UniProtKB/TrEMBL annotation:
<keyword id="KW-0812">Transmembrane</keyword>
<dbReference type="InterPro" id="IPR012505">
    <property type="entry name" value="YbbR"/>
</dbReference>
<keyword id="KW-0472">Membrane</keyword>
<dbReference type="Pfam" id="PF07949">
    <property type="entry name" value="YbbR"/>
</dbReference>
<protein>
    <submittedName>
        <fullName>YbbR-like domain-containing protein</fullName>
    </submittedName>
</protein>
<keyword id="KW-1133">Transmembrane helix</keyword>
<feature type="transmembrane region" description="Helical">
    <location>
        <begin position="21"/>
        <end position="42"/>
    </location>
</feature>
<dbReference type="InterPro" id="IPR053154">
    <property type="entry name" value="c-di-AMP_regulator"/>
</dbReference>
Length: 336
């Protein structure tokens, strides 16, 4: 039963194919292909315009010359010709790079210019005699250079870096931390810092390492043009320290005493920074080094209040949200 069913299916399929590939269909298919071929020939024989690109290379630089601003590495141009020639130009590796000789295109001081005519003169040998370049797209066909003048400039971060909750950015390291900048004297004098390309990094809690590009300068070149950046997040903790109160703007013949003579200062600091802050060798209590809390005699003299305000004048690097436990204290002014 199964064999008979299979033979019936095969016979049905064969009859179906014979109906499709009959003589009339093959004739129709032949003329369809023929008309398509004629259409393609007529189309390719029409005149069109098409844009192409060709690599540009600057050659012949002496060893003591540093190119501080390169011309565009690609030239874009439009060609007019028959369709079949444009189709041929569209094949891979049709155009070879054009080479511009530094010696013939520099002013001997700091600048070089490549004319569109020179570019076209090097492209035409790669084109058919029937082809015509109708335009060369506007690009940067000039370059600047110097004879090795440079200086070392520090690298700095540009952008926003926000670690995860309860963390802050403890420090940023660059490897290398400085780069060599090559430029003419007047340009070098204006460059004091090299910044990274703008960064926007958020929500990280471990040390983050990445390679970043440096911002480019007009007519200047950074070597290297990329640096490795390491971001160190740190956990924020609430800490406090007892700080002596100091009177400022006091006359020479008077002494101002506060009650209490010390005040507790609260602040937020990263755990890593906290470990490096000075502490009492015996008690391990935090020392008030870098903190300065003051009362202002001139303010007391003008207001004649029973209490005076206390102010945090300075605090160590790396601490934040610095505030005193109380805002006012009692005082006593004595004559010397």
């Amino acid at each position: 039963m199964k064999t008979g069913k299979s033979l019936h299916t095969f016979s049905t399929f064969r009859n179906f194919l014979s109906r499709i590939f009959n003589k009339e269909f093959l004739i129709f298919l032949f003329f369809l292909v023929l008309s398509g071929g004629f259409w393609l020939i007529m189309t390719l024989n029409e005149t069109y315009e098409r844009e192409f690109s060709i690599p540009l290379r600057l050659t012949g630089m002496p060893r003591n010359v540093v190119i501080t601003s390169d011309p565009d590495s690609v030239v874009r141009f439009t060609v007019r010709d028959k369709g079949y020639m444009l189709a041929f130009y569209g094949l891979d590796d049709t155009f070879h790079p054009i080479y511009i000789d530094y010696q013939h295109h520099n002013d001997g001081r700091s600048r070089g210019d490549i004319s569109v005519t020179d570019i076209q003169r090097q492209i035409y040998p790669q084109l058919s005699k029937s082809s015509k370049i109708t335009s060369v797209k506007g690009g940067k066909f000039s370059f600047s250079f110097n004879f090795g003048r440079h200086k070392k400039v520090p690298v700095r971060l540009l952008g926003t870096v926000t670690p995860g909750d309860n963390y802050y950015l403890a420090r940023v390291d660059f490897i290398p931390d400085s780069v060599q900048v090559y430029a003419a004297r007047n340009v070098l004098d204006s460059i004091q810092t090299v910044y990274t390309m703008r960064q926007h990094i958020t929500n990280f809690t471990d040390v983050k390492e990445l390679t970043v590009d440096l911002r480019k300068f007009t007519n200047a070149k950074c070597i290297p043009s990329k640096v490795k950046m390491k971001l160190y997040p740190d956990v924020l903790t609430e800490e406090s320290v007892e700080v002596p109160i100091e009177a400022i703007n006091m006359p020479d013949d008077k002494v101002m005493r506060t009650f209490p003579s010390k005040i507790r200062v609260n602040f937020v600091v990263g755990a890593y920074r906290m470990r490096s802050m000075p502490k009492n060798a015996e008690t391990k209590e935090l020392l008030p080094v870098g903190f300065r809390v003051v009362v202002n005699y001139k303010e007391v003299e003008e207001n004649s209040s029973e209490k005076c305000h206390v102010y945090v004048l300075t605090s160590p690097n790396g601490v934040r949200n610095v505030r005193t436990a109380v805002n006012t204290v009692d005082y006593l002014i004595e004559q010397r």
